[in-house]
Amino acid sequence: MPCTKDSELDKLRNEVLETTKEIFSLIAKRQSLCAEIGKLKQMKGLGVEDPSVERALRDSIAKEAMRLGIDKDFAQRLTTLLIEECTKVQPKPPERKVLTHRDIARMAEALEKQGIKVIRMDVGEPDFRAPGVVIERAYQEMRAGRSRYTEPKGKPELRQAIADYVRMRFGADIKPDQVIATIGGAFGVYLALASTISPGDEVVVIDPSWPIYKPCVRYVGGRPIVLETKLEDGWEPSLEELNEKISAATRAIILNYPCNPTGKALERKTFKGIAEIAQDRKLTLISDEVYADYNFTEKGHNTVLSYPDVSHVMISSFSKSWGMTGFRVGFVISDLERVNRMAAIQSMLITCIPEFIQYAAIEALKCLEDAKRNSDVMKERAEAVCKALEPLPVSFYKPDGAMYVFPRIDVEGIDGSEFAVKLLEKKNVSVAPGGAFGNYFNYFRISLGQPKESLLEGVRRIGEFLS
Amino acid sequence: MPCTKDSELDKLRNEVLETTKEIFSLIAKRQSLCAEIGKLKQMKGLGVEDPSVERALRDSIAKEAMRLGIDKDFAQRLTTLLIEECTKVQPKPPERKVLTHRDIARMAEALEKQGIKVIRMDVGEPDFRAPGVVIERAYQEMRAGRSRYTEPKGKPELRQAIADYVRMRFGADIKPDQVIATIGGAFGVYLALASTISPGDEVVVIDPSWPIYKPCVRYVGGRPIVLETKLEDGWEPSLEELNEKISAATRAIILNYPCNPTGKALERKTFKGIAEIAQDRKLTLISDEVYADYNFTEKGHNTVLSYPDVSHVMISSFSKSWGMTGFRVGFVISDLERVNRMAAIQSMLITCIPEFIQYAAIEALKCLEDAKRNSDVMKERAEAVCKALEPLPVSFYKPDGAMYVFPRIDVEGIDGSEFAVKLLEKKNVSVAPGGAFGNYFNYFRISLGQPKESLLEGVRRIGEFLS
Predict the structure, then answer these.
(1) A142 three-class SS
(2) How high is the pLDDT of residue B53?
(3) Please, what sign has the CA dihedral across residues B99, B104, B106, B111?
(4) Which percentage of chain A shows pLDDT scores above 90?
(5) Identical fold at B7-89 and B101-124+370-466?
(6) What are the domain boundaries of chain B?
(7) Fewest CB atoms within 10 A around its CB: which of A314, B6, B34, B61?
(8) Contacts of A239 by beta carbon, 8 Å cutoff, 6+ apart
(9) Banded pLDDT at A2 (limits 50, 70, 90)
């Protein structure tokens, strides 16, 4: 290396170069071993990824790194890079084509453009409109010039209003500095993950789940570990299985109750059990509670805020409760340290949310009767749809909350994706295929974001289709 | 590894584990060599980073990887990880505390809360308001229920309007599908980086630069490589130096002309030279053109869209041209493939931008006379401020555009951060310290986002302070 004339430095630099070359030569060896493993797995019909093998590898490396005095996060990052590269050199089985609700939505829109009326039960968006006072407030603030940059966390008035609301609604003692107003609930999930996960970390996702969780975990460099729940168990996650899914690399569990797509709300006992596991294993509970207001049970909503001693992020949104999807405003609550990390990310990525929309959100928090009315309407729709589904060849859990029903098709040989496409083509009814939510290919999701009459007509046509 | 009973697989897996351990043991050896180098450098008073040594290492590794059949991008990424970790184990000189414009803004707000009137020349936000028709349109659309989810890229009408605008404004032939309406210009920069960079990749940033670029490159796992420009050269980047900064790991160059903070607009010849380098070296030009409308020269704005054969992302915003900072709306333009990657990220992170704001943006694109008037006002302010700065003990480049002046303090022993703090305390004038924009500690940035009279009073007080 001719860059300096210093012989002592040059000698050391040469040694670094030689060592680096040796490292690469071992990596080449490692890759050819991985390629062999890949071929063997292919012959035996095994999948490429094997979480338990990976976990064992990571544990060994963690010990080795400690022994060698190598930084443990660096060691895990490097391991992730090695694993990913080795996965690339292994032959992969053809992937099962998963049709998402977005695919169906696009097909439905194409039909609509041809003038065909489609009963839209695909997209998870309530048909409610924002309260009039919310719109008027946004307008007044815009006119008054409130369309400037604000604090990344959101204006103090809004964060105070959210803290007050949360105290009133959930009895949780939250300081305004623990609140960030976010650009929607999805961004809240992203902030929670981005501020909690380092590359190579694992996150438990309970399936069936909102299709964004797993890609988002991967996007921040983490690895989603799926805990499957079953209709037969009333979509109740098993605490025992949950414990088995947790490894030394696990950092968080994502909860979403009331659940999209199942409508399940957890029993307090189960929620508490999960909280205890999180505390024991030092995990963060990332609790997406955007459907908190759509809870039809008498027991009321379970929130992670009831467990202040457990590391947590609570995510909420104005979208569902007040029909404000297109306002893109939500909030997250966590401990001050993580909130500040999340605020730094929001600041870098989007600066802040629109100023006048922050005032609209303040106004929405006063419209508690609107949120209640919307919830009552959703409950009535859920009941009507479930009643109409009863005689059909489907099985389902009667939702405790959220805005969905997630039936299984009990007709042999019907795949959920195929069902969704044909139902759309033949009956002009759009539903979300179950495969988008996990390994639930003979399920489909009905979104209740339509007037009851449309929903009932949709279910009637589903009945016709299945008969 | 007890995870499967398959002896053949187990044997191979064990070999993988042993090889991985060997890799780590070499890494430990490499780190101790690096630590030795670090000590030696410290003794000799040399800096920790040495780009030419790094480049030589990268070149050797590239050859070695090719010889060994290792993917070359993966090899460079791994090399970055090794270099960064080795930089960490070397003793570092104490870091210089960098005060940002946000720190100064917070201090200024604290004074304002005490009732003290501060002349705010810190934040890069024009004082212009959104055109009235923009506000009315947003209101009308909200009232009409246009507050729902939209396509992640933005509504087709808006993307068509942007494509038409870009054709009219820059003569660029862009299809609506190559456009994404983003939640502000900063998010456009993020999307450009996130869709272009893999961990370990390098990105050239031309300093002085907007303080968000380097952290954002790091945030997506990349490594910012700084090309410094000098006031003495009229902030013109040297093509020769640029070439030297590019290594096998370089993927992109970030351009921001007219420039925040210098006000520099590139000569067409220089822009072309950079485009040619990008084409030769297969790099992406990420061109942040949010100040395109604030161009005071007669030669007009240079846009990366003039180089369709070069891989590029063009970023723009409604914030500056129309005084719409708090609407959080901008757009990016690129090739269809990258645009689709960016749209997938925007979809996952924020779903879409508020629907009624998309209509507001359509309306703004019709208000060309407002953008022109705002630009004229900014030009007049720039001229007045420069004239007022002339007699002061400062040196500066008379801005070609943007909304800033970036003077150097020609008084011995004054540090830019100290200057900003004392100026605020003693004269109640807030400016952004130069250190926030790179290695420019005896500079400060004046933002022109205030009425001329305030700016002139601010400069008068700066003069008093420096005399």
Answers:
(1) helix
(2) 83
(3) positive
(4) 79
(5) no
(6) 7-89, 101-124+370-466, 132-367
(7) B6
(8) A270, A273, A274, A277
(9) very low
A72-76, A259-263, B452-456 — which is least confidently predicted? Answer: A72-76
Residue A425 CB contacts under 8 Å (≥ 6 apart), including other chains: none
Mutate to test the interface with B, among A4, A26, A39, A72 (most CBs of B within 10 A): A26
DSSP string, A250-299: EEEEEE-SS-TTT-----HHHHHHHHHHHHHHT-EEEEE-TTTT-B-SSS
pLDDT in tens, A305-341: 999 999 999 999 999 999 999 999 999 999 999 999 9
Chain B nearest C-alpha distance from A166 (Å): 23
| Position B344 confidence tier, pLDDT thresholds 50, 70, 90 | very high
| Number of residues in chain A | 467
Give ipTM to 2 decimals: 0.90
Q: Give SS3 for B291.
A: coil
Q: What CATH architecture is B132-367?
A: 3-Layer(aba) Sandwich (3.40)
Contact A186 B349 (CB under 8 A): yes
Confidence of residue B2 (pLDDT cuts 50, 70, 90): very low
- C-alpha closest to that of B65 among A31, A84, A77, A3: A31
Q: Which residues in B lie closer than 8 A to residue A187 (C-beta atoms)?
A: 349-350
Q: Which residues of B touch A19 (CB under 8 A)?
A: 26, 29-30, 33
Instruction: Identify all chain B residues contacting A1, using CB atoms and an 8 Å cutoff.
Output: 53, 56-57
Which ranges in A179-227 belong to alpha helices (H)? 185-194, 213-219
Residue B64 has pLDDT above 70, yes or no: yes
Question: Is the Cα torsion angle A74, B20, B55, B224 positive or negative in sign?
Answer: negative
pLDDT for B3 equals: 47
Could you say which of A37, A138, A349 has the minimum Cβ distance to residue B190? A349
CB B319 within 8 A of CB B288: no
Architecture per CATH, domain A32-95, reads as Up-down Bundle (1.20)
**pLDDT score of B263 more than 60:** yes
Helices (H) and strands (E) in chain B, counts: 15, 13
Mean pLDDT over the full length of chain A: 92
3-state class of A416 per DSSP? helix
Which of A9, A70, A187 lies at the smallest CB-CB distance from B28? A70
Q: CATH 3.90.1150.10: does it fit domain A101-124+370-466?
A: yes
pLDDT for the residue numbered A43 = 85
Pairing of strands A223-228, A250-255: unpaired
Residue A450: CB atoms within 10 A of its CB come to 21
B70:A350 CB<8 A: no
The two tokens of residue B71 are 């993917």
The pLDDT, as a whole number, for residue B54 is 82
pLDDT in tens, A259-281: 999 999 999 999 999 999 999 99
Pairing of strands A179-182, A330-334: antiparallel
In terms of Cα–Cα distance, which of B381, B411, B410, B375 is closest to B395? B410
Instruction: Pick one of 3.40.50.1760, 3.40.1280.10, 1.20.59.10, 3.20.20.140 as the CATH number of B7-89.
Output: 1.20.59.10
Q: Give the chain B residue whose CA is nearest to the CA of A64.
A: B21
Using 50, 70 and 90 to split pLDDT, how confident is the model at A1? very low
The residues with which B445 forms a beta bridge, in sequence order, are: B432
CB distance B147–A53 less than 8 Å? no
Extract the tokens encoding A353. Answer: 């949310």
Comparing alpha-carbon positions, the chain A residue that sits nearest to B195 is A219
> How many angstroms separate the CA atoms of B118 and A240, rounded?
61
Per CB-CB distance under 8 Å, the chain B contacts of A138 are 138-139, 142
* Arithmetic mean of pLDDT, A381-399: 97
Residue A227, strand partner residues: A206
DSSP letter assigned to residue B145: T
